[in-house]
Amino acid sequence: MEPGAVFRAYLIADNVEPGTPEAKLLASTLEFIRRLGLQVGGSKSRGLGLLRVDEGASRAWFCDFTEAHGSPALEMLLDPRKGHKMRLEELVEFLRTGRS
Is there a contact between 37 and 51 (Cβ–Cβ < 8 Å)? Predict the structure, then answer.
């Protein structure tokens, strides 16, 4: 991958309840990647190198299936973008506290 190239990735976290230890761990991991990036590969000449998050292009959707039922729940299951849209930093805070 050339320097400056765009690498698009999707993360789907299933069954994560905000405020739980699991959600806080996920929030801390996302915050680390958001701030410092993610080193992918073994050295400078192998692998993808240091990947950084493009905050402006990043999107997050939280799908709350405890609140949605019937057709709305099915639509979110088929397309997570039907969930609550938020910035990545908002998702991190929401996972930690349960409040966005």
Answer: yes
